[in-house]
Specification:
Layout (H helix, E strand, L loop, with lengths): L2 H17 L8 E3 L2 E5 L6 E5 L4 E3 L6 H4 L8
Antiparallel strand pairs: 1-2, 2-3, 3-4
């Protein structure tokens, strides 16, 4: 997989999260990719350096569905 394809996979993960109402925190570097956590529901999504994606985010954010309490402090 090319660097361009990996970047596209990353953008797809961001777009899908936003469409589901998720509020992703900053992306953090992991051993072989990048991970972010939704600030509303606490569920993660991961994009590997090779473009492989692994996401536990639901189609709709359960944190937002439970009253949209916003960011936890």
């Amino acid at each position: 997989m090319t660097d361009k394809e990996a970047k596209e996979a990353h953008l797809e993960a961001i777009a899908e999260a936003a469409l589901g109402g998720h509020d992703l925190d900053a992306w953090e570097r992991t051993k072989k990719g990048w991970m972010s956590t939704c600030l509303l529901c606490g569920i993660t999504t991961w994009v590997g350096d090779s473009g492989i994606r692994y996401s536990l985010l639901g189609d709709e954010c359960v944190g937002r569905a439970d009253g949209d309490m916003g960011r936890q402090q």
